[in-house]
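Two proteins, back to back. First:
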Amino acid sequence: GTTCMTEGDNAAGDSCTYANDCQAGYGCVGQDPNYFCEQLCTAATTCDTGTCQGIGGIYTGHADVGFCTE
């Protein structure tokens, strides 16, 4: 599945607060209070670098979404 959000200005690795703080293709992931923009992925996509790690229900209704880790 997909979801649409407005694109933010924060680049990969930048700190963030909201999912739409990050540039297109990136999401705000981490653990409170440390959230960073990471490339989003699914099992059906490849990461620019690293592998896709699932984040479960963080994005409600999108359990197949993950982020790329090195």
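And the second protein:
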Amino acid sequence: MLDTAGRIVGWNISAEKLTGYSEVEVLGKNYSMFVSKDEAHRKVFTKALAVAAKKGQFIAEGIRVRKDGSHFYARTFITPMKEQGRRINFFVLITRDITEGRALEQKREEHIGIASHELKNPITTLSLYSELLAKRLELERDKKNLHMLRDIQSQATRLTTLVDDLLIVGKIESGKLELHKTEFKPVPLIKKIIREFQSHTPTHRIIFSGSCARSVRADSDRVAQVVINLIANAVKYSPPARKVQVELRARRGKCIISVQDLGTGIEKRDQRNIFARYFRASDAEAGNIAGSGLGLYIAKAIVKKHRERLWLKSMQGKGSKFFFTLSLV
């Protein structure tokens, strides 16, 4: 237990076993003594208490330091305990050692990364030869075999997308996702994405509207990936709708880009987890809609890396609308 300033006022046996400190040694001291030097320098723990006080709970992961100087990876839950008048009496802090689970997760991500890289070469070769074969079949007007070959190309494209997604997830999880920011006008970029997407999407009409005359500073390739993921989701999860709306508008120093479908919408119970890795909405599972559950997770990570926002509005039976921001120059 911590007082409102973060000083330790309660210490149980589990805490003693986890850290090596007895109750006598820690009472009255600030809990920030357990965080890494980097987090202490950035006042991460003080900020965590402020967030917990405001939102009712704070959950974070990070390095913690034991009495003997050894480190462990921890997941921390901070919850304020309030009186009826909403004044905070104290905080309850729970720390769990997740070092072993974290190590297994990192090892798994490394294996996925290696496997993804190994898959890249044969998929690229397959795509190249299938394109050459398709051109030959077009010249010979062999429509039957050309149709089957186009199906092969479509599946190869899906496999390439999945491999690319796995590679970028590996970068996100390892903290190695890099941005190469430049200044560019968002409208030409979005229109180009729509043209290319529309060329191989016969089921839906993708409509552009709005404007954003000023430039933004961002990684254009990563922004394109976000837009492509959002449009792909809109098409995938609104098969009867036949239309997807992409809109740009400038407001309060931001360019707001939105992608709207007119599908079935997302249930409220699913909305809180929609950006989680591998999460798939219950209606997608029920409808056997193909997907890896990585598209929105990747989009969220890219937008967050830009220090921008990505959010959604959705109503059952009326479709979903995803928004994200970019800062205007």
